[in-house]
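Reviewers of the previous submission asked for a worked example of the structure-prediction workflow described in the proposal, so we include one complete record here. The input consisted solely of the amino acid sequence. No template or homolog information was supplied to the procedure at any stage.
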Amino acid sequence: MRPIVAGSAGVGMMAINNSPRCPKCQKTMERGHIPDRGRNQVFQSGWSHGEAERQRFFGGIKFRPKEQLPLTAFRCPSCGYVELYAPPG
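From that input alone, the workflow returned the following structure tokens.
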């Protein structure tokens, strides 16, 4: 598994409002991320196109790192609602 790094084309430059409003209670949401833990490493979670395909012999699902987009999470501190955003592309 390969880490997703924020950079000029990553999460840091996403065309997302820096402080979106919660669609449930209209409070300002906080930016964050969802860590994805692997073997002795932590990566940023990502979005992949299509349904997950199970691996036949090794368990888990098939993983195509080149097709993955980094996810940014926004959480409402008032009601706890969470939204995930992937950059366009």
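Residues 1-15 have pLDDT under 50 and may be disordered. We consider this example representative of the routine output the project will generate in years two and three.
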